[in-house]
Amino acid sequence: MTQGITFLDAGQAVDCFLLIKTATKSIAVNGKPYLTLIFQDKSGEIEAKLWDASDGEVQKYQAETIVKVSGEIQNYRGRNQLKIKQIRPSTEQDAVQIQDFVQSAPLEKTEMADTITQFIFEMKNPNIQRITRHLLKKYHQPFLEFPAATKNHHEFVSGLAYHVVSMLKLAKAIADLYPSLDRDLLYAGVILHDLGKVIELSGPISTTYTVEGNLLGHITIMVNEIGKAADELQIQGEEVTVLQHIILSHHGKLEWGSPKLPLIKEAEILHYIDNIDAKMNMLDRTLERTKPGEFSEKVFALDHRSFYKPSFHK
Amino acid sequence: MTQGITFLDAGQAVDCFLLIKTATKSIAVNGKPYLTLIFQDKSGEIEAKLWDASDGEVQKYQAETIVKVSGEIQNYRGRNQLKIKQIRPSTEQDAVQIQDFVQSAPLEKTEMADTITQFIFEMKNPNIQRITRHLLKKYHQPFLEFPAATKNHHEFVSGLAYHVVSMLKLAKAIADLYPSLDRDLLYAGVILHDLGKVIELSGPISTTYTVEGNLLGHITIMVNEIGKAADELQIQGEEVTVLQHIILSHHGKLEWGSPKLPLIKEAEILHYIDNIDAKMNMLDRTLERTKPGEFSEKVFALDHRSFYKPSFHK
Amino acid sequence: MTQGITFLDAGQAVDCFLLIKTATKSIAVNGKPYLTLIFQDKSGEIEAKLWDASDGEVQKYQAETIVKVSGEIQNYRGRNQLKIKQIRPSTEQDAVQIQDFVQSAPLEKTEMADTITQFIFEMKNPNIQRITRHLLKKYHQPFLEFPAATKNHHEFVSGLAYHVVSMLKLAKAIADLYPSLDRDLLYAGVILHDLGKVIELSGPISTTYTVEGNLLGHITIMVNEIGKAADELQIQGEEVTVLQHIILSHHGKLEWGSPKLPLIKEAEILHYIDNIDAKMNMLDRTLERTKPGEFSEKVFALDHRSFYKPSFHK
Amino acid sequence: MTQGITFLDAGQAVDCFLLIKTATKSIAVNGKPYLTLIFQDKSGEIEAKLWDASDGEVQKYQAETIVKVSGEIQNYRGRNQLKIKQIRPSTEQDAVQIQDFVQSAPLEKTEMADTITQFIFEMKNPNIQRITRHLLKKYHQPFLEFPAATKNHHEFVSGLAYHVVSMLKLAKAIADLYPSLDRDLLYAGVILHDLGKVIELSGPISTTYTVEGNLLGHITIMVNEIGKAADELQIQGEEVTVLQHIILSHHGKLEWGSPKLPLIKEAEILHYIDNIDAKMNMLDRTLERTKPGEFSEKVFALDHRSFYKPSFHK
Amino acid sequence: MTQGITFLDAGQAVDCFLLIKTATKSIAVNGKPYLTLIFQDKSGEIEAKLWDASDGEVQKYQAETIVKVSGEIQNYRGRNQLKIKQIRPSTEQDAVQIQDFVQSAPLEKTEMADTITQFIFEMKNPNIQRITRHLLKKYHQPFLEFPAATKNHHEFVSGLAYHVVSMLKLAKAIADLYPSLDRDLLYAGVILHDLGKVIELSGPISTTYTVEGNLLGHITIMVNEIGKAADELQIQGEEVTVLQHIILSHHGKLEWGSPKLPLIKEAEILHYIDNIDAKMNMLDRTLERTKPGEFSEKVFALDHRSFYKPSFHK
Amino acid sequence: MTQGITFLDAGQAVDCFLLIKTATKSIAVNGKPYLTLIFQDKSGEIEAKLWDASDGEVQKYQAETIVKVSGEIQNYRGRNQLKIKQIRPSTEQDAVQIQDFVQSAPLEKTEMADTITQFIFEMKNPNIQRITRHLLKKYHQPFLEFPAATKNHHEFVSGLAYHVVSMLKLAKAIADLYPSLDRDLLYAGVILHDLGKVIELSGPISTTYTVEGNLLGHITIMVNEIGKAADELQIQGEEVTVLQHIILSHHGKLEWGSPKLPLIKEAEILHYIDNIDAKMNMLDRTLERTKPGEFSEKVFALDHRSFYKPSFHK
Q1: Neighbours of C (≥3 Cβ pairs closer than 8 A)?
Q2: Phi then psi for B298, rounded to 5 degrees?
Q3: Which of A228, E292, F109, F266 is the most exposed place for a label (fewest CB within 10 A)?
Q4: CB contacts < 8 A (A, E)
Q5: Which residues, 6 or more positions from E192, have their beta carbon under 8 angstroms from its beta carbon?
Q6: What is the mean pLDDT of chain A?
Q7: D289-309: per-residue pLDDT in tens?
């Protein structure tokens, strides 16, 4: 089981440690309680039912508990489930820990931090450079640990930083081909565009929206932060308004939550770069589980399309 | 001519002072320059052509100049024009001044300021009260002079304050009928909702959008201002986020420029109050010029509808 | 249990009388029949299952039966259910009656009738007054008993009259602030706007749509009724067409079922008044069940939004 | 000039009688008045300018005057204009009359009336038959003279009756192929569907919308008329509601002015029949003026499409 | 049971042969496997559950197996189910065969082929005639057996040919009434419009989409085929492009999968004819199961509308 | 005047050679003919009027004539015009030629051809490589000369090839960053995506749409061409369908003319690459004419937005 729980087919036996992501108690048709458990490992999630759950079991099998499970994969209405045969909580002897079951970015945090620092270092406009550095420093710790979203793309530990690093590389490649682009604006836009998520979201694991996140959203949060940073750093040039505009408009459409459309070239391009990196992440992870000559599961954030993996791809 | 230039019918003679709002030089089909003048008085605007304009005339008849004009109203493609017979700039002896030709709110500035102060005084939540008072004080002067918009509704001197006063009265009437409403939030929302326009717009006369207005918009500007006010006043309760949300969402739809839909009852109601007062202003001013038994001009911001004035209305 | 069945939390015991709103027989996975019961009291509804229901039980527990139930509230997929421990039909000795379990308007019918009569009495235009009085008299009884809708807002006994009374008060408050409004048209519009629902809907309890309601709708029904009333009363002025237009257009948009947009000022304002009263009703009833610092259930007719009750609200 | 004014090409000389459809006085750039005249004959319309028009000429050349014109066709911005060389009002000796210049249906009124009577005669359901006959009789005269619309399709004298006759033939052909259709409903629907236009529109020539037409529309007008007819004829069966529904829903979509979608099979089919006959009329009249191998003018009511006439069509 | 399984009401006993359309194994709440079976006969489909299914039963009751079933119709959440009492696979002695349980067109294949041949024979333009005949011949066999769609309309054996025959008759009736139509284009368009479905779909029974169908669609497939046919037949006139355009545009809107709107009269009319025949098929089949005075099930492809069968229809 | 006619400001004198792009004869208000001339040089276009044009002048100054003009730039309604003082046709002695006045790609045709050949050379899948090479060879000449569009972006001589070369470089940069991408599909998609324009459009200069272009569009044309190429080259693998799908879907949305949404990863990415290169071309050319601190003209294909050039940009 090198690849993990989501790569198994119906009929395969399971005998491994898994992390309980959520545990929900319900009443079965026969009047007895049962638990719906969502297990996860680094490859993703799978659902299971624990029938006739005693009060003790309900107590034992809560979210963020690691368990040893044996059972079998079954297909139910087109989706895999795990049929539990045996289950027990892990013990100290098992020597397993939560981070072994949580997906995280494929790069180390220090490596990502170094890359981003290098991009900031290359900036020529001191106002843009100082604001970017100030805000990144202010939210350094959560920036390196938060996901980029609660679902759809980069929804894993350090997903936010990983998304930013990928986008920086793409921004550089595009700026090399279209030399009229202002690299300072583009890099600062990439680094700050989703930084408000460290306030919008609750944390790196079991991520939900905070009240401030729901009422204001990460875009407004970061636009405010740029304003405060400029005040603290006593920066007054047009760069402040321009940076705020780039963050404000990066969703690209009013109905996608940007109250202004991009009105600066680098704002328009930032929107495209964000889009490409997010979609590549979704597509790669979807097609990873699709066999050549078959259609994938429907991808929610890509208009529910099923993508085809050509049979001449391996 | 008690009512002003926009109430005259085709064929009527004109002999009065008018303010030049804009003057645009063009080349006629015969190759000679002419001026397109937009005149205004308190009742509104009318277009005129000054044919074969000499360089001296082009110099003399610029925007914000008061002139004495005699001529005749003519109808051209369904709209009135003024055919100029004689024109001269006003002199000191004429004793006319710009404010005589500019439409402004029907209430005095001090009266409006007093009314608003009274509403703030009645607030019970000190955090909401202090932030509102702080921001109103900070922008007191322009708030009392700016229009509420460049066109469509309340687009006159002190239109912003007048719109706020009308909305406060309507908010009070509604809160009297629906006692579950939080009056503090509602009044603060009304007072602050368009205050960002003092930065978004250029000034009370010949109003245009500033760069900051175009790139950020009055909603984002005021949400930032609330954040800064709270910092300066060292206020930290949830009231800050809630006030920001109410301003953020008051346009009521993403496609109308609010990046979040109203998620608080008072935010939803503020949107309705704003809408009613703006629409009543448009409708009253449109129907003022419509005869009983006839349809009005098309109203741009009301889906280009022509409204009917029933023949049993006087 | 002063507040009623919908205010209980999971884990609380239940021992009270309830009205069966609907009873549906189904076959369980073990092949045995069971009943899904929707109970209601004045506070609202709750679902329950009666497992292994015998033929006698199916016979006994039908819609509009009052029962004595003891059991416990349980949470199932985020919604409360009632787990039945004991159930029996009520007897004469229990001295309970259907109206004790049905939600109705917070005002008495006679009080509402008086208020509306007073508004009609104040009308100055005799044509408008006579048509309004004629139609109200014609449908007096059902008008005072019907709900204003089958769901979303004012969906309770006498909801229609209560909605009209609230709107009349709001119309009066608005007309006081905007004196150009024709109060006769506004009040007549409010009184008649949903009166067609007494034909569109089946009755005050277990309300469904009639065939005529489905095929024509309450708007068309009432427009026809106004025409017939004018014929019977031998009224021929433009008021007839104008009243018909105001009813026709009060949904405000073609896609919301008005075949003409409002083209008369009072028609436009009627639409806003209707909207505010309906939305206030929804919001109040939703937030009544929401704790400070939490988000409400999603409100279907408000774009599925969850509303936030600020933590500084009690 | 057998085909008429709209079939001439730029450069061709004109010397014929034409009817003035509209005459609009304007002021030229040189300050002198001129007239914009829309001439018409049976083939359609053409615009012309009468420069330096004296007061006498303005008086002489008003709408509904027949004139003798000589001049030349010129192309101005892709549209033909008539350059006037000589013009004079017609005299009695010229022996020309208005109906020679007005387009009308290609069938005689009596012939159309007979066809429709025959369809009514074939109806089997007495309620449907009596209502249809009653309403057709009530509006017999204008029904045979009115256009079916002010523009887009069948916008000529007797266009309404002609549209109905074509639709009846099409309805019969479709009912022959799909025998489950109720012919009575279908024929009654066809005959009554646009009959409200005799109240919505002002008359057969220079057609505009009446106040009642603007405020209620022909659909609501006719639904009311059906209700009144049923009352007068003391008919009470479900046929009345069903007929009203078919008229109400025949535009097929809420945003096209039907407050209910078709919910009866014949209502759905009536919408298709109406659509086909209207579109065939537009397409035939557009392509009549298009040469093989070329694209037509843009057709407003067909999404502004330019239609291609294949080069192998003659 | 003359009419078939879909015409039975809840409570009626069942004892007949049925074809298994699909069989899906699931795990019940008690942990035991069960089968969800979709049975079909010529009248349509019904669902059933086979509880506690042994491995042998899972093996025996697979798709495309004919079984003898006895049981009872039950209503579950508003839809009928079949409660199985006894079930066994059919044997040779039962003398039943798959085609007895599969719905197919009400006309014989040879009869349909003859009708279409006759229409081709009547074509006057040799280029259009040759291309049409060539393609029909190339795909003769599947054309006569395929359904016209996987759901919504004509989704039965030979549904494609039956749809074409109905449309040809309708096209002829319309061309008789509107003589300007080019019958050759219209008939060729009808015959070829959905012919690409023989490549887009998998076959006449248990029909799904092929990879080519998913990636290209029947419209593009047939446009390519017309191009290749013209090459093979060495036809070069504009007829080729025009025929391709008519197929390309026959869905009538970009969002319905036509990359070009109809720009030729016959293309526009083909779209209407296709629409009428598809909708009549849906409506007839839906209303066949609806009692007079009741509303039908919701029809997915007609905006989820429920259609009403008037109570005066039998 | 190194930069060309479009870079001059109002008031500047003009004395240079220009190419007449279009010449339109009209009748002035004084009844005399005049010419509206659109002049062009490599920098773009400017309008001018030639008043009181004699028949000889109309004859002399036709499209594609080079003229010597002196005059002055004037601003008319916010757009520059050229006021002609003197004009004469160029003579042989002037030694000017059309290509000096026509904008073309900034790279040489041979250089672009070499680059593309190199990309094809790098392909690994022989089926994809052979089809791409075959089609490029078939349309080699027009491919190197056609514009990529008639307006909006790359609407200049060799614009198509230049667009392809830029996209190939961008595709390579993206494939370097996201190694899961199939470079063969991506490069073939880039090279072929707009190749159908050599049939859809009329030619490199004064470009319009052909009949085939209007009726089928470049997408359908190229999908057909791929099918024919595969037949000629006797290639049958899934690569053919996949390549056709990538071209078919590259507009990304049904309403933008792709009858299928992208269902293959490289199809989705091709759409983004096409979009970025087109938008960068529009933005660069628009902002080239915009001064720092100002807003640009509205860009039609970018939602009519005016873009801002920050004042800290030079």
Answers
A1: A, B, D, E
A2: -70, 135
A3: E292
A4: 20
A5: E132, E135, E136, E222, E226, E243, E247
A6: 92
A7: 899 999 998 999 999 999 999
Q: Which of B169, B182, B283 comes nearest C313 by C-beta?
A: B182
The two three-digit tokens of residue D75, written as one number: 């192309």
Q: Which of E35, E47, E74 to mutate to test the interface with C (most CBs of C within 10 A)?
A: E74
pLDDT digits (tens, 9 = 90+) for F188-211: 999 999 999 999 999 988 789 999
Residues 6+ apart with CB under 8 A from A285: none
By Cβ distance, the residue of B27, B29, B30 closest to F74 is: B27
pLDDT band at D1 (very low <50, low <70, confident <90, very high): very low
∠ CA D117-D121-D126, nearest 5°, is: 125
Query: Contact B264/C310 with Cβ under 8 angstroms?
Result: yes
How many Å is the Cα radius of gyration of chain B? 23
d(CA F181, CA C124): 77
3-state secondary structure chain B: CCCCHHHCCCCCEEEEEEEEEEEEEEECCCCCEEEEEEEEECCEEEEEEECCCCHHHHHHCCCCCEEEEEEEEEEECCEEEEEEEEEEECCHHHCCCHHHCCCECCCCHHHHHHHHHHHHHCCCCHHHHHHHHHHHHHCHHHHHHCCCCCCCCCCCECHHHHHHHHHHHHHHHHHHHCCCCCHHHHHHHHHHCCCCHHHHECCCCCCCECHHHHHCHHHHHHHHHHHHHHHHHCCCCCHHHHHHHHHHCCCCCHHHCCCCCCCCHHHHHHHHHHHHHHHHHHHHHHHCCCCCCEEEEEEHHHCCEEEEECCCCC
Residues in chain F whose Cβ is within 8 Å of chain A:
125, 166, 169-170, 173-174, 176-178, 180, 182, 185, 237-239, 242, 261-265, 268-269, 272, 275-276, 279-280, 283-284, 287, 295, 302-303, 305-308, 310-313
By Cβ distance, the residue of E77, E81, E308 closest to C211 is: E308
C24, C29, C216: best to mutate for the E interface, most E CBs within 10 A: C29
Provide the CB-side half-sphere exposure for E117 (13 A, CA).
9
Written in H, E and C, the secondary structure of A126-184 is HHHHHHHHHHHHHCHHHHHHCCCCCCCCCCCECHHHHHHHHHHHHHHHHHHHCCCCCHH
What mean pLDDT do residues F28-53 have? 83
Query: What kind and span of H or E run contains D252?
Result: none
Check CB contact under 8 Å for D269 and E280.
Answer: yes
User: Residue B164: which of B98, B119, B122 has the closest Cα?
Assistant: B119
Instruction: Say what the ipTM of the complex is.
Output: 0.88
Round the CA-based radius of gyration of chain F to a whole number and report it.
Answer: 23
Residue of A nearest to B247 (CA): A216
Long-range contacts of E293-298 (CB under 8 A, 24+ apart): E293/C211, E295/C214, E295/D263
Which chains pack against A, by 3+ Cβ pairs within 8 A?
A: B, C, E, F
The verdict on a CB contact (< 8 Å) between C308 and A215 is yes
Q: Residue E27 is nearest to which of A29, A74, A295, comparing CB atoms?
A: A74
User: What is the 8-class DSSP label of residue D50?
Assistant: E
The number of angstroms, rounded, from the C-alpha of B68 to the middle of its chain's C-alpha atoms is 27
pLDDT digits (tens, 9 = 90+) for A225-258: 999 999 999 999 999 999 999 999 999 999 999 9
Best residue in C240, C254, C268 for a mutation probing chain D (most D CBs within 10 Å): C254
Asked if residues D160 and D221 have their Cβ atoms less than 8 Å apart, the reply is no
What per-residue confidence (pLDDT) applies to A1?
40
CA of C223 vs chain D CAs: smallest distance (Å):
8
C238 contact partners, CB below 8 Å, separation of at least 6: B310, B311, B312, D211
